[in-house]
Amino acid sequence: MDKSKTAQDSAEALNQKTMKAKSKSASERKSALDFRKYTKQIWLAGLGAFSRAEEEGNKLFDSLVKVGEELESKTADIADQTVEKVSEKAKESVTETKDKVEKLIDNSVHHSLNRIGLVTLKDVQHLERLILQLHAKVDQLTAEQEKMQEELSKKTQIK
């Protein structure tokens, strides 16, 4: 019985090895099929990603162009405003400087003309003001004198 049990155990062990070998080769085949399947899926996913990137890339590119145009418009407006402000300040500065130079030249010319004895426009204007003031005083004194004469003539008529 020992021999028959050993033979039976050997046959069973051989049978198990054969089954394991068959199952190994089946699992290896399944593994190879799975690998091919996954490889193909990876390839298809890559193609899909490439296609989507191409489609979305065009949309993204167009979107970026639009954003760039808006930004350029804003910066152009800001640049125009800055140039306008700088121009205004420069004009104000030039006007102030021009006025100062004119005053210096007027004073210098006036002083030079006075030194050589010539009358300037300022002198004439000053004299004109004085004459107007004098004329107003004369008119006032004339009116007061007429009033006094009327009062005197009334007093002499009453007596």
Automatic annotation (TrEMBL):
Key word Disulfide bond present: no
Ranges in coiled-coil conformation: 87-158
InterPro entries: PhaF_PhaI
Biased composition, class Polar residues, residue ranges: 7-18
Superkingdom field: Bacteria
Pfam families linked: Phasin
Annotated keywords: Coiled coil
Coiled coil keyword on record: yes
Chain intervals for the UniProt region annotation (Disordered): 1-31
PANTHER family membership: SLR0058 PROTEIN (PTHR38664)
UniProt-recorded name of the protein: Poly(Hydroxyalcanoate) granule associated protein
